[in-house]
Design brief:
MetI-like fold; mainly alpha; MetI-like
């Protein structure tokens, strides 16, 4: 009996004691309660991080939209040798890793880089540049497909009225503004939820370049779970609002199609 007891006790020798489930649940519930308090009581640090995140991502999407929509419209109507290869590269860039974008922008903006004289590394401007590069392929690819589909339905009418190819593409984008809004919301969701690029080019400096995703990573590693949870909840809320808005735009666009089809010529 003594030998069996010693053998049994030897199995657990050298192993750390397993954490008790009630303790883990209490720790999570306490952190969650504090996180809700940070949100409801408008904690200054929390909302400063949130405001910077939204400002950086919104600016990046505005810049990315200017380039992406024009590029997508042009690719939808342009015909040149290698066009299919360019479209293929564009579609491949939809899965462009954010850390690769961050690395490229870092090398360009570092002191030894070609744009080092600008002195904008580890600033919100560098983060905007990185996120703009990240969303341009997404906006361009979706805009190209949107224009291509629209041209099959109404391209001949615009051509009969004398509109050029690029002008026709831009007019179709303006007509499909609800679908374009969905594209931009998708791009904003991609930008606000990424962490790799802004971590590299922003440096995650408190009060300067710390955004929601980088702050979550940092606070979790520091063990400050309430702030990390609060930021995570706000980020989930932002993504939920984006998805809801995109869904509403899609429904409005789908509801407008039968009305347009039934309108007299």
């Amino acid at each position: 009996m003594h030998i069996a007891a010693r053998a049994g006790s030897g199995k657990n020798r050298g192993r750390p004691p397993a954490p008790e489930l009630p303790f883990l649940m209490n720790a999570f519930s306490d952190s969650f309660s504090v996180a809700l308090g940070l949100i409801t009581q408008a904690d200054a640090t929390l909302w400063q991080i949130v405001a910077l995140s939204l400002r950086v991502s919104a600016t990046a999407c505005a810049l990315g939209a200017g380039f992406g929509l024009l590029l997508g419209a042009w690719l939808a109507v342009a015909r040149f040798p290698g066009h299919a290869a360019v479209v293929g590269v564009l579609n491949t860039l939809l899965a462009l890793p954010s850390v690769v974008v961050g690395l490229v922008v870092y090398l360009l903006l570092s002191r030894s880089g070609p744009l080092g004289s600008w002195g904008i590394l580890f600033t919100p401007t560098a983060m905007v540049i990185a996120q703009s590069i990240l969303v341009v392929p997404l906006i361009a690819a979706l805009a190209r497909q949107l224009v291509a589909d629209a041209l099959r339905e109404g391209g001949d009418e615009l051509a009969a009225m004398g509109a050029g190819k690029l002008l026709s593409a831009l007019l179709l984008l303006a007509h499909a503004r609800l679908a374009v809004g969905t594209v931009l919301l998708t791009a904003f969701g991609r930008a606000v939820a990424e962490v790799g690029a802004v971590m590299i080019v922003g440096g995650n400096i408190a009060g300067v370049t710390r955004v929601m995703t980088t702050a979550i990573a940092l606070e979790t590693s520091k063990g400050d779970l309430p702030l990390a949870l609060a930021l995570g909840l706000v980020l989930l809320g932002v993504v939920a609002v984006i998805n809801l808005a995109a869904g509403l735009l899609q429904r409005r666009g789908a509801a407008a199609l039968p009305v347009a089809a039934g309108a007299p010529a």
